[in-house]
Design brief:
The complex is a heterodimer. By secondary structure, chain A is mainly α. Chain A contains 22 helices and two strands. In chain A, strands 1-2 form a two-stranded antiparallel ribbon. The radius of gyration of chain A is 22 Å and the shape is globular. Chain A starts with a helix and ends with a helix. In chain B, about 75% of the residues lie in helices and about 5% in strands. In chain B, strands 1-2 form a two-stranded antiparallel ribbon. By secondary structure, chain B is mainly alpha-helical. The chains are: A mainly alpha, B mainly alpha.
């Protein structure tokens, strides 16, 4: 108890580790700077300087994050945050994902209609929120980070102001996201009620006491917390918002959400299960395992019947959340490593398809499967990027997806969860049906009924009809880079495995 | 590091890279000529391979240390002839393709070469995960080859066929992946050894009896689908009908054998107790395949499916030989895989020639094609007789070994299986007679083989003849590999096998 008192007295003057906080401060200040820069209304400032500043902010913050890799874990602000390799790796992932979506947004209608400054500034705020979240070591910080990233994201989803679908998506995400947040907050409050503390470390200490385990308040709290997080991570059965929001949101934002939001939720889940809730993990495992299987099943079955690529990717994202959850369920360093590695490669596997979809949307082809017809001849670079990504997502060799699944399967079997490994492979088998359909549409379908007519089709509001794929080299570049990365890390996974290992070591140290 | 085997994997890619630089109409011929380099290289390796040699050219590099996955290749009696067969089949396939007009030739030949790399890699792999990786990898190029260049009467037929093929085989392969990972992980946990997927390490650290059972099932499904063995052969008819003939040569002659090879290389040595439990089931499958395949082959009108179903029957023999769990049976299985690969190359070439003359690949449209083509008829007859295992042919030696092995250990199954020999004579002779003799079909034009056609068919015929004259060459070199595959079963006596299981269970 004396330590609690001692901690209470230090609250007055929290020690702030400024060195460790630098990357967070850069993000926070950068969001404001970006907004102000964009106030200069010159065209060149709007088109060039604003994105450049945003990129500089993200890269600058990323550099300072990277400098903290391999450093011993630091607790900052009196236990509010713990900046360790787990937090750093996830933060780098958020930043990379945001950079990719800035490239996708460069010449999008969203950037025009919504205002570039606002767009990039909000995006940086989201990254800041996620970074805080990934480092949170206290329930209050957790919620702070969660809202800091959620609220700007609601706005971003509605970013295509002139399009009804985008507004609808924003509203939907706002309502369901708030529900998720509220549920989570409720859960956190219950956990606090049961344990009397918001600090992960002390919660774990409380939970190690024998008499608290069956406590109803605690169980309700834990359940509600996981439900809230499941909303964010689109874990079934709390995934229903995903396809609608993904479809309606501007594609660059969807691309960011698909990776970063999921990663943020999993960062929290890993921290909670690795530290605060670690003592009761035995009881949680069966529940999470069932959730994982349900998620894999629902995601894969849902993706089958889709005609929109974005909806298909949304459901496939649900399925992938199920695979990621397997690494959490086993709750071993190997599992954490599998989850982190899969999350990292998920970035590459997802960015390429979204870049291709963005390109097709701008060519006026929409985002349905049909938009890909004849792409093999029209734009081979985009076609191959999409093909490789689909092969990677379905987990075939020699792509990173294969190594990722291999890792998760190995973690599951090693922790005596062989049936989860079987669930992963059965899910992958199901997923082939819709991933292959994309490839078949690209290469084996006749070209779209005279592509010259397509520019005369009713366009999605805001799409730039005059632009064909040759006019946006940045989309082609990012799609190709992401696809090449999917293959490169499939043959030589070393660098990402090292990152994942560092994160997993940090994860393993949480419990102690 | 021994580069020889890595070179085998890289030569096809290098060849197709050179071909891609050529102008469009030269891509095919260049790619075809490039395959001869591989054949030459393979010939050197074959000459160097002496009777009784163990693992040669062994490469072992740590690939992903965290997962215990090695990049490890090796050549021994079990796979050397499969690798040679792959080189020959792909060369013939490429030459055969280069005679045709092919749209997007660069992509076609690149995919063909990639498929060869996958197949060679699977045969050469000495690490379980590497084996699975190549086993899956080769499916991707086949998916494109069938889907993009497939032939189909109804629109979208090729697309459907390739999707069926892919989903069937990959669903199996993914199960095998889970089984393979489980095997490695459990082997390291149960024996408290460092995790490794190398065949040698896995054989030294066997997993428990229960684990072997379900891991066996995972492997079994994947391998049976690939062979294919009924009831898991559903992809075969639709895929065979849609696959372009040159691609089908490679698919049927070699890739189908990969399933049988997997049993010999992976399942028998690493999961002996699983094999013991499931032996009756697999023998049943083998016999069903022999009879079902033969009966179906006898009643097909599509010549491709005659060969396709006859392959099911032949691979059934191979399975019978493998699960006799006897050195002789295994040896026969390997011989039969090679022999059948060679005759399949010949048969599909001939189907192509017949179709050019009859205007259709259907038996009902053929007839009397031997009239002006004595040379073609002779070569066809040689291959047909080899397929039905005429005494004197290498196939006869192979089937004799298989039945010899089966009779020693599993008399009843061997006896039922031997019916297949008679059935084979029936369907092959029917095929030959309907096509070559009898009344001429409406649009048939009997024509002798021209020089390119003859040159294409000659290697297969020469190989059939050479192995018929001197089967000992194959038999001696294969023996070591076969023995090592069944070494876990000792004197392959039922009593011994059961006591062995009993001991391990303790």
């Amino acid at each position: 108890m004396s330590t609690v008192l001692a901690a209470a007295t230090t609250v007055k003057a929290p020690s702030v580790e400024w060195n460790t906080m630098i990357p967070y401060l850069i993000l926070g200040a950068g969001a404001i700077v970006t907004l102000f820069v964009s106030l200069l209304s010159t065209r060149s400032v709007q088109r060039v300087l604003t994105p450049l500043v945003a990129v500089a902010v993200l890269v600058g913050s990323g550099v300072f994050f990277a400098l903290q890799l391999h450093e011993p874990a630091k607790t900052v602000m009196s236990g509010a945050m713990r900046v360790d390799d787990l937090a750093v790796v996830f933060s780098l992932l958020f930043i990379a994902s945001a950079l990719a979506s800035i490239v996708l947004a460069l010449r999008s209608s969203t950037a025009q209609n919504f205002g570039r400054g606002e767009l990039y500034s909000l995006l940086i705020t989201v990254v800041l929120g996620m970074a805080v979240l990934a480092a949170a070591e206290n329930l209050v910080t957790l919620f702070l980070g969660l809202e800091l990233f959620s609220i700007p994201l609601y706005v971003l989803c509605a970013g295509d102001l002139l399009r009804k679908g985008s507004l609808e998506s924003g509203i939907k995400y706002l309502i369901i996201g708030s529900l998720g947040s509220a549920t989570l907050l409720y859960g956190l409050a219950f956990i606090y009620g049961a344990t009397g503390t918001t600090d992960y470390f002390r919660i774990a200490a409380q939970l190690s006491l024998p008499d608290i385990r069956g406590d109803a308040i605690l169980l309700v709290g834990v359940a509600l917390t996981f439900v809230g997080l499941a909303f964010k991570a689109s874990i079934a059965p709390f995934h229903q918002w995903t396809p609608d929001v993904y479809e309606g949101a501007p594609t660059p934002i969807t691309s960011f959400m698909a990776v970063a939001t999921k990663a943020a939720a999993f960062a929290v889940i890993l921290r909670l299960t690795g530290q605060a809730l670690h003592p009761i993990m035995d009881n949680l495992q069966p529940v999470l395992a069932v959730l994982a299987v349900v998620t894999i099943l629902v995601g894969n079955l849902g993706a089958m019947g889709q005609t929109s690529l974005k909806r298909m990717l949304a459901y496939s994202g649900v399925a992938q959340a199920g695979y990621l959850l397997v690494g959490v369920v086993v709750s071993t360093a190997l599992g954490a490593r599998g989850t982190v590695f899969y999350m990292l490669i998920y970035l590459f596997m997802n960015v390429a398809p979204f870049a291709v979809i963005t390109a097709r949307e701008r060519a006026g082809a929409g985002s349905g499967y049909d938009s890909l017809r004849g792409l093999g001849r029209e734009a081979p670079a985009l076609a191959w990027s999409m093909t490789i990504s689909m092969i990677a997502l379905s987990g075939l060799p020699i792509t990173a997806g294969f190594i990722g699944k291999l890792f998760l399967i190995e973690a599951a079997v090693a922790a005596d969860y062989a049936w989860l490994a079987v669930a992963i492979v059965l899910g992958s088998a199901l997923s082939l049906t819709y991933y292959l359909r994309v490839i078949a549409t690209i290469w084996m379908s006749p070209a779209r009924g005279a592509s010259s007519v397509s520019s005369g089709e009713p366009l999605i509001a805001g799409a730039a009809p005059e632009a064909d794929s040759s006019n946006h080299p940045e989309l082609v570049a990012i799609a190709v880079i992401a696809a090449l990365a999917s293959i490169f890390f499939g043959v030589w996974p070393g660098p990402l495995l090292d990152l994942a290992r560092d994160a997993a070591i940090a994860f393993a140290q949480l419990g102690r | 590091m021994n580069l020889a085997l890595t070179l085998i994997l890289l030569i096809p890619l290098a060849g197709v890279l050179i071909a891609a630089l050529m102008p469009k109409n030269q891509v095919g011929p260049t790619a075809a000529i490039a395959t001869l380099i591989q054949i030459g290289f393979m010939a050197v390796l074959l000459v160097q391979f002496e009777v009784g040699d163990g693992l040669k050219g062994f490469v072992d590099e740590m690939w992903i240390p965290e997962l215990g996955i090695h990049y490890s290749l090796g050549l021994d009696g079990l796979n050397i002839f499969m690798v040679a067969l792959t080189s020959v089949a792909w060369s013939v396939a490429t030459f055969s393709a280069s005679r045709r007009e092919i749209s997007q030739p660069r992509m076609f030949y690149a995919m063909l070469a990639l498929a060869e790399v996958g197949t060679l890699g699977a045969f050469l792999a000495q690490d379980l995960i590497l084996f699975v990786l190549f086993f899956d990898l080769l499916l991707v190029p086949f998916y494109f080859l069938i889907g993009m260049w497939g032939e189909s009467e109804e629109p979208g037929g090729a697309r459907r066929a390739t999707a069926t093929f892919m989903i069937y085989t990959l669903a199996g392969s993914l199960l095998m992946l889970a089984a393979a990972v489980a095997l490695g992980v459990l082997s390291s946990i149960q024996n408290q050894s460092e995790i490794s997927f190398q065949f040698a390490d896995l054989a030294a650290n066997p997993v428990s009896h229960t684990a072997q059972q379900w891991i066996f099932v995972g492997f079994m499904i994947a391998l049976l689908v690939k062979m294919p063995i009924p009831p898991l052969h559903g992809w075969m008819p639709i895929t065979y009908k849609a696959t372009p003939l040159p691609v089908l040569i490679a698919l049927s002659a070699v890739v189908a054998k990969l399933g049988a090879y997997g049993f010999l290389r992976v399942v028998l040595p690493l999961l002996p107790e699983g094999v013991d439990s499931f032996q009756p089931l697999l023998l049943l499958f083998a016999v069903i395949a022999i009879i079902y395949g033969s009966v179906m082959a006898f009643s097909q009108d599509e010549t491709r499916l005659v060969v396709g179903y006859s392959s099911i029957a032949q691979i059934g023999f191979v399975l019978l030989g493998i699960f006799a769990l006897d050195a002789k049976g295994a040896e026969g299985a390997i011989l039969q895989m090679v022999n059948h690969g060679i005759v399949t190359i010949g048969l599909f070439l001939i189907i192509g020639f017949l179709a050019e003359r009859a205007g259709s690949e259907k038996l009902s449209a053929m007839g009397g094609l031997a009239r002006n083509a004595p040379l073609m008829a002779t070569l066809f007859l040689i291959i047909a007789l080899a397929t039905l295992a005429m005494p004197g042919s290498a196939n006869f030696v192979g089937e004799t070994y298989i039945l010899f092995g089966a009779f020693t250990t599993e008399f009843v199954w061997g006896a039922i299986g031997s019916v297949g020999i008679v059935l084979a004579a029936m369907y092959m002779l029917r095929f030959f007679q309907r096509a070559m003799h009898g009344r001429e079909g409406g649009n048939t034009a009997s024509r002798e083989l021209n020089v390119p056609e003859f040159a294409l068919l000659l290697p297969a015929v020469l190989l059939v003849l050479a192995l018929a004259i001197y089967p000992q060459y194959l038999v001696e070199r294969v023996e070591g590999g076969a023995k090592s595959a069944v070494s876990a079963f000792g004197v392959s006596d039922d009593d011994v096998a059961t006591t062995k299981v009993g001991e391990d269970a303790k």
